[in-house]
Design goal:
Number of helices: 19
Radius of gyration: 25 Å
Subcellular location: Cell membrane
Structural class: mainly alpha
GO cellular component, one term: plasma membrane
Membrane topology: Multi-pass membrane protein
Keywords: Antibiotic resistance, Cell membrane, Membrane, Transmembrane, Transmembrane helix, Transport
CATH superfamily of the largest domain: MFS general substrate transporter like domains
CATH topology of the largest domain: Growth Hormone, Chain: A
Strand content: under 5%
Order of helices and strands: HHHHHHHHEHHHHHHHHHEEHEH
Number of strands: 4
Protein name: MFS transporter
């Protein structure tokens, strides 16, 4: 009798603690996300200092900057699905440790090769952290209404991290050496490791069959090839180039083989049947389109502010801050809007608002217009974050709880692919509209005009070397051509965003919250803990569905050995 009472008291305490601590769990997860988001952009402002100190070659410098997002995007599915098998908290804590160690190596790197290796390890750590934060959030907030609030906070923190990276990097570089942009991660990870171990619950999906190691490696290799090829396209490389075409073809082939393998397996690494659900596949497509527009526009906007308007990097960052603040506001207000309007109207509205902001920005010209830029960036940030919030929430809620890690990894991979494709696609549109305006500038040699057509920065360099009337004419023509190209790119972006709005019409009209299928187990109402989503996912310390069946058969007591193991 006493054993039964003790076994019954334990889940009651854990259930009560889970309800009280879930917001603390959210804070820990958001700190994790903030570190990864900051590290993705913090190095950008440190590139000149790194170049001066380590003297990397052009290829080495490219790898220093790009290897982190490249490795991170490639390994998201691998670590997301592994977390479903071995435990999401375990993968997250290992990611913390690896991130801290890699940060120390990067800060003390004395040559480019060591820094590249450290950045690659940071990418591995980021790939372990990112899907784990979303999948743990999915388990800790089983009630969709609370989960919507949590995802809103999560997405707002992501927006803050992306904007804080360059600002934090600039501040550190003014007072310390370039390695400080990495050292700042270490104390935060030293705090996050013990706090995460103490606070975060362990959870995993149902373990059916062996983990598909071959499939995981195929997905990693395929994503690496595709993302690498897309990044080269975004850098202006020719499609037919050996180092662009080969990775794209090999990566696409591996991904096709991966899909075929998953369809044949009894216990697939990723349940592709999720894509048969319109809400899930549509949400993934909306994430790709939203990121495609955001990253390309941010890149071009930064060039416009610095090269056309002549603003400093710090002034450029400050001009872009309203976009971040608007994104934060949209994330925090997203949960209430989702409950009131539903996923379909919310995501469709976000796309349409973003398209309107893009059309407003087509009024940008050669002279500065702070009011226009402020209103355009506010609308852009609010609209895009509304879209991303609604799409992420719908995708995560539509996925089975047992596949939370895989679903989170798919969402993050879509995010990274959309960003890479956006830079490549909108960059190509920009170059196609910019270059023709420089083919026949009076007094400028044909070779100089051709070189100036590569970029606005190169055109300014050539104009400076030419000097005199020819240099002045080339500089003015390049500026006018860039503004023209910017307008064309914005119109293309508006068209893509309206395509996204049409795609969002496939999302559910209303936010379907789970019914409370309450099952009382040893004095604990399981539905209150799991929000009615008992099957498919098990959280340590919460009785699972197998326990409920055993309770019914054994007269109301849970065997002590099953408590804390989900009834396995």
């Amino acid at each position: 009798m006493s054993g039964t009472t003790t076994a019954a008291a334990a889940p009651r305490r854990r259930a009560a603690g889970a309800g009280a601590n879930r917001w603390v769990v959210l804070v820990v997860l958001c700190v994790s996300l903030l570190l990864v988001a900051v590290d993705a952009t913090v190095l950008h402002v440190a590139v000149p200092a790194v170049t001066e100190d380590l003297k990397p070659g052009a290829i080495e410098l490219l790898w220093i900057v790009d290897v982190y997002p490249l490795v991170c995007a490639s390994l998201l599915i691998l670590f997301g699905t592994l977390g479903d098998r071995v435990g999401r908290r375990r993968i997250l804590l290992l990611g913390y440790a690896l991130f801290g160690v890699a940060s120390g190596i990067a800060a003390l790197a004395h040559d480019p090769q060591l820094l590249i290796m450290a950045r690659a390890l940071l990418g591995v750590g980021g790939a372990m952290i990112m899907p784990a934060t979303l999948s743990i959030l999915r388990q800790v907030f089983p009630d969709r209404r609370e989960r919507a609030v949590a995802i809103g906070v999560w997405s707002a923190v992501a927006a803050v991290g992306a904007a804080a990276g360059p600002l934090l990097g600039g501040f550190l570089l003014e007072h310390f050496w370039w390695g400080s942009v990495f050292l700042v991660n270490i104390p935060l990870m030293l705090v996050s490791l013990p706090v995460g171990r103490l606070v975060l619950p362990e959870s995993r999906g149902t373990v059916d069959g062996p983990w598909d190691v071959v499939g995981a490696l195929m997905a990693a290799g395929g994503l690496f090839g595709v993302v690498f090829g897309v990044k080269r396209l975004g850098g202006g490389e020719a499609v037919a180039g050996a180092y662009t075409l080969a990775p794209l073809v090999v990566g696409a082939a591996l991904l096709i083989l991966f899909v075929r393998r998953q369809r044949r397996r009894t216990h697939p690494l990723v349940d592709l049947r999720m894509f048969a659900r319109p809400a899930f596949s549509t949400s993934v497509g909306c994430i790709v389109l939203a990121m495609l527009a955001l990253v390309g526009l941010e890149l071009i906007a930064a060039q416009y502010l610095q090269l056309v308007l002549g603003l400093s990097p710090l002034q450029t960052g400050l001009r872009l801050l309203p976009l971040t603040f608007a994104a934060m506001a949209a994330g925090l207000a997203g949960a209430r809007a989702l409950r009131r309007f539903g996923p379909r109207r919310m995501v469709c509205f976000g796309f349409c608002l973003t398209a309107c902001s893009v059309l407003v920005l087509t009024a940008m010209g050669r002279s500065d217009n702070p009011g226009l830029l402020l209103s355009g960036f506010l609308l852009l940030g609010f609209g895009l974050e509304t879209t991303l919030f609604g799409a992420y929430e719908s995708m995560l809620s539509e996925a089975p709880p047992a596949q939370a890690g895989g679903a989170a990894a798919i969402g993050e991979t879509s995010y990274q692919l959309g960003a890479g494709i956006g830079i490549a696609l909108l960059g190509s549109v920009m170059n196609a509209a910019y270059a023709p305006g420089l083919t026949s500038v009076a007094g400028v040699p044909a070779a100089a005009s051709a070189s100036a057509g590569h970029s606005l920065g190169e055109a300014y360099d050539i104009a400076g070397r030419l000097g005199g009337p020819a240099g002045t004419a080339l500089r003015a023509a390049a500026r006018d051509s860039f503004v023209h190209g910017l307008h064309v790119t914005l119109l293309v972006s508006a068209g893509l965003l309206l395509l996204g709005a049409a795609m969002a019409l496939r999302l559910p009209r209303a936010m379907q919250c789970e019914a409370d299928g309450d099952v009382t187990v040893a004095g604990v109402t399981v539905g209150e803990v799991t929000g009615g989503e008992v099957p498919g996912a098990e959280v340590a310390g919460v009785p699972g569905p197998r326990d409920a069946a055993r309770v019914a058969a054994s007269g109301g007591s849970v065997p002590a050995e099953s408590v804390g193991r989900g009834g396995r």
